[in-house]
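User: Before I run my own analysis I want an independent prediction to cross-check against. Here's the chain; please return only the structure tokens and, at the end, one sentence I can use as a sanity check.
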Amino acid sequence: MTLAHSLSLYSTLNLLLCVSFISLSVFRKLSQSITGSVELKLHYATLVGIFVALLSYPLLPLKNSFQPPVKIWSADSIKSFPTNFSVDKSDGFLSLSNRVAQASLDAHKISVLWIVLGAIILCVGLWRLLCDLVSLHQIRKHALLQKRIGNVFIYCSGHIAVPFSYSVFFSAHVILPSNLLPKKEDYRMALTHELQHHRQGDTFWVYPLWALQVLCAPNPFMHAWKRMISEIQEFACDEVLVDQKNISSKAYARCLVEVAQTAIDQKRMPVCATGLTFLVDGNLLTRRIEKMLTTKKQSNRSILFALGTILTIMLGFTAYASKGLVQDRRVTLEQAQEMAKAIDTNSFPITLNERVVGQLNRFLGTPEGREYMKNALSRMENYRETIESKLHTFHMPNELMAVPIVESAYQNLPDRNQHGYGAGLWMFIQSTARKYGMKVEAKVDERLNTEMETDAAVRYLSSNHARFQDWQLALLAYNAGENTVQRGIDSTGSKDAWKLIQAGFEGDKDYLAKVTAAVLIMKNPDSLL
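Assistant: Structure tokens:
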């Protein structure tokens, strides 16, 4: 998994937790008539939905619904773009803004830091869990086994003040303080309460909740949600107990108060355990007693189904929309191959190699490159009708509209100097311009006449194609000159444009690769989103 994927997955997990907590908090306020057991099932179903969303996350399509807040670029700027770029060897640069130069970080260093922090958090969490399991083992070791029913073990211990329960390897354990033994009614209520935690699955869900708390330690919503679930677990147990005819709600409330008074002597509860007074404080204890003594709630399953459906839709949409939170702007060979499918290679050949992929990363993998391409494609629309008409007249492929993208970014520029630099959309040098009938004088420069320069460029490219019978060679000749290409063919004995380039017969560095990359982007404008 790449850095972008792992960061995006982690961000999505935290976002799902935030959405879940806020939504469930709102539902709790709006649906106060449902029972605690029904509400608890809704929370557990939401947790299942989060895990399903995370498992299906790699299968979700990448949809650029918004500008991603974090991006990984091929280079920190177009000026520092490496000559021999390879996406497989580049870790890239991570930025928190659209301009890498403003705040860029070496992605390799971030990856190392990410792995180290993850390992530290995991080790700390596992160490705490291991310590708690050892602590539970010691408590159970010195406890007296009262009863065993299948995989359920009931113990009494003089080392604890508050009852609690936990599950390990499909076995359920309940540990009660020894001082409850003489109080048969209190003993029975405490035991029934703890067994209800097992029936509800609380002792199972404590492990996934613990894992989420460890993984999302900086996320306050996760800690708040864990506290909310723990409260609902207790409310659900309370409701089940007071619904039983042989247990008095007043007696049960008295038992809660008495156990709460002794809870001050109890050390912290292990992370893998649930307890009768797991969250004892004045406010919670008051609310628990009030709920037991007030009117009973309804177990409305239709409300549960409706809320569950709404939450499922919200979680699915959140996971789908958030996949691009961290976007890797670098282009791989596989992605380039997907882009090439939009081009009719029978009319215009597309060769994908390291040079082309490198130029794709130069245009798409740097902020300046993307800005250059966006502006060029926007300006291209001003000249589309003129150029397409000329290309159609000469039966030439529309892909050649990418040439001015590389030459001038579709800016009808005057000559920067008088020494043959080039001018116009197609960047004709003076000698070639005159050869194709354009005036280049002190007061008149017909290279800036869009109609004339386009006609000349199309005729020049058509002439090159007629001579070399290959559009790649025609483009190479447009930049380096026909004679240079012919010498390359004679020297290498090959009409493969890329072999000629490898042998040094080219004009501007990577010119053909730039045009090929521009064609791919022009035919895939969504790549710039």
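Sanity check: The two ends are 23 Å apart (CA to CA).
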